[in-house]
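Record type: ASSEMBLY
Status: queued
Input:
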Amino acid sequence: MQINTNDIISTLYYSREAIEYLFAKKDNISISQLKSEISISEEMYNRMKSLEIIYEYENTVVLNDSVINMLEDILQIGESTPGIISEYVSEIKRYISFYQETHHYRFISPLKKYLRRIDKTITREIIKLQKSIDDTYKNESNYRIKLRRLEEYREKRDTIINNIYILQNLLSENHNTLSSSADAQLFQIIQTLKQTLLENLDYLIEIQTDITDYINKIQYQLDIYQKAQQLKELKDQGLLNFSTNFHEIIEKLNPIRFNGHKAPRTKISVDTLYTDIGQQLCQKIAEKYKVSQLRYRTSAGQLNFNINEKILDHQILIDTQKLVEKFLQQKEKNLFEFILNFKFPKQIGDLTINQKLSLFVEILVQYEKQLNFSYQLKFIEITENEKTQKIGYTVILPSKERKKITTNS
Amino acid sequence: MKIEDLELPKQTHEIFNILARGHFISSNGTKDGMGRLYDILNDPVNFEKLQDYFNVLRYKIEKGNNYFYFSKLNEPPSITEKKLETFEKYIDIIDLFASLDNKITIGSRFRPSEIAEECNANVRLKQKLAKIPLYRSENFLNKIREICDMLTRDSFLELEDENTETYKVLDAYSYLLDIINAITIFGQPNYSENTNDNLSDNIDININPN
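Status: finished
Output:
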């Protein structure tokens, strides 16, 4: 089969979901598992297989190592492989010797290629090494393996340092030879590389400190475990409080959890509940407790009269219940006429027409079910303070009167 | 400086929610984005801002070895029977962990069933586990589960995978180890004095402890 880069790139693109899945899981993915977790057509699966992006072993499927390495290199993760730096150093050494022998320009080009590559590779490998060390310390479950792996990383770090020294020597020993090429670009690459090498050496010293620090911490944990066993023995013998300063140390511990402090429960102010955030909180609580009657109540506009002076006064003083009862007992007048002509007690005094109207409306709202609405409108002209106004009102009849009306009609 | 001018990180609320419940924030925690919250707290600029902010609420952020927790400002720690009991129980638990073949340390992952199996096969461990005062006493597995629950509640462990019942030891566990280290056994030198001596020799001994 003829393969070109375009084929590979497009297959990688169209199978990206499967590649991402396999890259994340790495091991022990069965073919059926892959096909059930990822939507991938049979044709695409076979294409990945034919291009060797994936391999099948018995019933499991794995990603090609080259793909894994490519992704790890770009993401700067995975195991550090200092061997690749050694290979590049050998290549650089080889091309320098070719150039020394022939002084032919065709050897400068690959030399520049490897010098550029080694510049990037050393930095990448060091970053990978640092990540692996942190990951091992934080996540390796077996402490013996953890120690061994940290020791291995120490060796890898030594290998990288050796390679850097070899490279530095190589560049300084062949300084004259390389200068004779009079290639400005080569000179620039070497200068950048030298700077990178110095920076990376500093970084590797920090890595060494980290490794030692992590190993110390593991060692410390093991020492503490021995001490815990001793304390346990003393505790079993009832000597913990006499042979140690246990009591004193525990007293000093300050985390809130061990000192009986409970999580604070902040009460929300009523003002906050009227804000948008408060409304959201109320809705959440309503959902939790399945309260269906929660309605968002926007604030009403300002009243066009002074409620304290006019309405509230007679709301408190007038017993509307008794007024309604008296209205129902009589037969002549409809409600509005009744209120208009009703002699209110002296304590209340004379009510204005506006106050009487308010009282009429208030009774309508409050006693809606007890009153008989005739659904007729009547008009009346009232003169007050030399002003005449025509008022329209709904006719509310006492119940008996209403029956009479209906029988008459 | 006013609190409004602090420009707090947007995760302040989450951080407060965890710390105010008395939990630790560990660098290797994964639940509820704990690792990210640790990174935010570990940034010196954020730390200073949050410290100022929480001080107003009379909380102080305490920094440990890869973990953070809250203490109360201007309020000396107290000593109670419960506090002593809790830490006596922790000595029992750490002693059990220390006696296991595959020692549980920071970053370790384990399943309660693995420890229960080891306890079943080892008389010494069986005795240790039997002596730990626990409520669930039906079998070893339930006892280990109760220990794990307790350590998880106190945020020293996290249940990493509910399906496989895998726990992970968080960095906050080193708080317990530091307490053990701080306790002085009268008539004995403190361990911290010896930890850095001749490291590589010590490591070799401990790689093959059996």
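Annotation: Chain A touches chain B through 55 residues (CB under 8 Å).
Annotation: The longest strand of chain A covers residues 372-384.
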